[in-house]
Each structure stands twice: as C-alpha cells, then as structure tokens.
Amino acid sequence: MPDASVNNDLLARHRAVLPSWMPLYYHDPIELVAGSGRRVTDAAGRTYLDFFGGVLTNMLGYDVAEVREAVERQLRTGIVHTSTLYLIRQQVELAEKIAARSGIRDARVFFTNSGSEANEAALLFATNTRRSNQVLAVRNGYHGRTFGAMAVTGTRSWSASSLSPLQVAWLHFGDRLRGAYAGLPDADHIEAAVADLREVLATQVGGDVAALIAEPIQGVGGFVIPPDGLFAAVREVLDETGILFISDEVQTGWGRTGTHFWGYQAHGVVPDLLTFAKGVGNGLALAGVVGRAEVMEGVPGISFSTFGGNPVAAAAGNAVFDYLSRHDLQANAERVGSLLLDGLRSGLRDQPHVAEVRGRGLMIGVELVRPGGTVPDPAAAGVALEACRRDGLLVGRGGLYGNVLRIGPPLTLTEAEAREGLAILLDACRYRSDGGT
Ligand code: PLP
C-alpha cells in the first residue's frame, strides 16, 4: 500500500490555501519529486511508470538531456526573459518550424502560455475577422478555463460558471457509444453530423457565424474519436458562408496520434486556425495559435503577450521539436500505440464492464460501464485508477461522466514499457463481481 502519511502535512496545507475545486488524483494524493525517462518518483520513494505523461505535458519523458541542455544554455546567458518587445531568436526559429509543419499556407504563429489562452486568441482572431460573436462548438468538447474557452466548452462540469458574451450553438459530433449517433456506421454518422450542422445553422443562429471550434479527438471528453473525414464534410458546409474552422490540437498535435502530425489530418481538411499547448515545451509553459495570415492579421493592435514565446520556453520548444523529428516519435507513437491498443482490446474483450477500448497512437481510452450496457461507471474508473497506482502505473481519467481511463504516455515509450504497463492495466481493469474492478 502507498504510504499516505508522507504527504499528510503538504496535503493539509494544500487544502488550506488552494481552492477546494482544484482536483487531485488519488485517495492519498502524491507529490512527484523526480523523473527520468518515462518514470517518476514520489516523496515516499515509490517509482511509477507514467502512462499519462503528467497530463500529456511530457511529450518526450523526463530529464531529456537535449531539452535540459537547451534550457540551461538559455539560463546561462543571464536572460530568462525580458520582453516580447525585443527580438527573440529562439521564438522566431520555433515559429518558422511550426509554421512550416502546420499545413496552413502563409501561416503566422502567435505564442501564448497555455492552451486556454491559445484558444482565447484563436476565438478573438476569428470573431474579429468575421465581425461576429457567434461560434459553433461541439458537445462534450473541452477548450480551457478562460472566458471564451469556457464558453465553447461543452461539459457543464468544466464550464458551468462561464458568463462569456460569445453566443454558442452546440453540435453533435462524436460519441459512438450513446446519444444520437450511437452505433452508426461512419458514413451515416458523418451524414447525420452534417444534417445536424445544417439544422443548427438554419434554426439556432441568426446572421453571420464566426467559427467552429473542435478537437479532432476529444481529450478531456474521454478520447472520443469521430469518424475520419467528418471535418471535411462539415467544412464544406462552413465554406458556403465563410465560417472559419479552428482545430484545437492541444492534445492531438505533434504526432501523438501516430498516423498524423496533427489530428486534423485524419479528416483531409486544413483548418484556418489551429492551437497547440500541453507537451510542446516538455513541461515548460508554451502554447500558441497558428493561422492563415488574413485571419491572424485581421485584428488590429490586439495581441501582446508578456511571456508568450519567452526565450526559455521557446528554447525548450525548439529542442522538443528537433527531438521529435530526429527520432521520428510519430512513428514510435503509432507502433507502440498499436501494441497497447491491440493488447488492451484483446485482453479486455471479455470484461462485461468495458464498453469500448478506443484510440489512435498514444492516445487511448478505456470506457468503463455497468456490466453489459453503456451506463457509465465512474466508480469503476476510480477503482481501476487506484489499482494502477498501487501497482506502479499512473494513468489519467476523463470522459463526460468521469468513467474513462486515459492513456497518453510520453511519445518515447518503449515496447518493453508498453508491455509492463499493459499487464498492470489488464489486471486493474479485470471485473470483480464484488462491485469494483
Ligand atoms: N484545449 C484542450 C483540448 C485541452 O485538453 C486543454 C487542457 O486540458 C486546453 C485546451 C486548455 O489548456 P490549458 O490547461 O493549458 O489552458
């Protein structure tokens, strides 16, 4: 059993001074004090294999020499950051690489410090360009915790407090287990989503709509994957009236899905704007928006960020980008991700409370339900999460009902580590008729 007493004092202090709504994983929350490769160590000296990479914040794993050295080099200059009012070589270099890789023609890059800010900026660019505050968003999507980002977040548990002036109309896109499109073949699913979009445009909005914002795979929503090609079909309708498309690539970017560098590429469509964050700085705060020049330039004098693209974060970003490319981690995500996905599917096939194992690359979800149906079972996910932790594996949790285990390890995960984590997961997800897993 984990030694809960180690962090009793820190936990009490946390509870006394930080807001009570800040979530902490585990019945006995852990403090991580060291990391190397794909493993982290807690204050009690226990080491865990990290199958969630922080929360997808560690793209390459822990203590990667190339990233550490790039950051140290920058720190040794004496300049952590001055101002984005001066030229920053690291920022320009990173922007060049991202623009070239974005797939967006004549792209511009604006750096921020978080995914929320990136989405906020993207919404700002789109609404200003289109002179409209109406936006389309997707049910069960998550886009962050700033005013606009919360307004387009389609799960009430994350967005109940938003009072944003954006007018948002909601679309059905993804869930294949329950709801309007449950069990439909891909072509019918896409047709239904397009019909839904047309109906929303005809009945729920008036005048111009600025943009649609969507995640190619819903992250916080439980790694929900719409059919390939859906965004292209939707885009055809958007193009009829010039509605812009924002692809939120905060979780799906940088090769995580294996088959593609960006999630949008599964759909055969290029967005007007895309946002990125999470693991780009391998733990340092680095995020941003990439967009077509007309859209990014269409907003006069609005955007300055004190810290966005600062030299230390940008140095880390360059090192991460170069490492990803040099080691072809996208291919590794595909290879090791397939091993995990196949292993989970075959190992959990007979489990009555596993409704679905889905995923792409190193973004894999296991949806737990009451046996034999599709009624979500968040308690079972909680039990499985604790069981994994007990056996030395950290995984994530999500989904509209909190009943999905989320697996998103660093893209450097080896086959041996995948097999090690797989064995723990299979055991943790085994159904036990005493009510737990
Ligand atoms: N967009 C998506 C898809 C996310 O998953 C998140 C965070 O989980 C965000 C935006 C917000 O990013 P941040 O927490 O860095 O503000």
Label this structure with key terms.
14 helices; four-stranded mixed β-sheet; binds pyridoxal-5'-phosphate; alpha/beta; transaminase activity; 437 residues; seven-stranded mixed β-sheet
Helix content: 25-40%
Strand order of the largest sheet: 4-10-9-8-7-5-6
Q: What compounds are bound to the protein?
A: pyridoxal-5'-phosphate
- Content of β-strand: 15-25%
- The average pLDDT is 94
Content-based structural category: alpha/beta
- Oligomerization status of the protein chains: single chain
List low-confidence stretches: none
Enzyme class: transferase
Keywords: Aminotransferase, Pyridoxal phosphate, Transferase
Pfam family, one: Aminotran_3
Cofactor: pyridoxal 5'-phosphate
Q: What features would you describe in this structure?
A:
The protein has helices at residues 8-17, 53-56, 65-76, 89-102, 115-130, 147-151, 156-159, 186-203, 230-240, 293-296, 311-326, 329-348, 378-390, 415-428; strands spanning 32-36, 39-42, 47-50, 107-112, 134-138, 167-171, 211-214, 244-248, 273-276, 287-292, 354-359, 364-368, 393-394, 396-398, 404-407. The protein is of the alpha/beta class and 437 residues long. It has a 7-stranded mixed β-sheet, sandwiched between helices. The protein has a 4-stranded mixed β-sheet with strand order 1-2-3-13. β11 (354-359) and β12 (364-368) form a beta hairpin. α4 (89-102) packs across α11 and α12 (329-348) runs parallel beside α14. The chain binds pyridoxal-5'-phosphate (PLP). The site of pyridoxal-5'-phosphate has 14 residues, from α5.
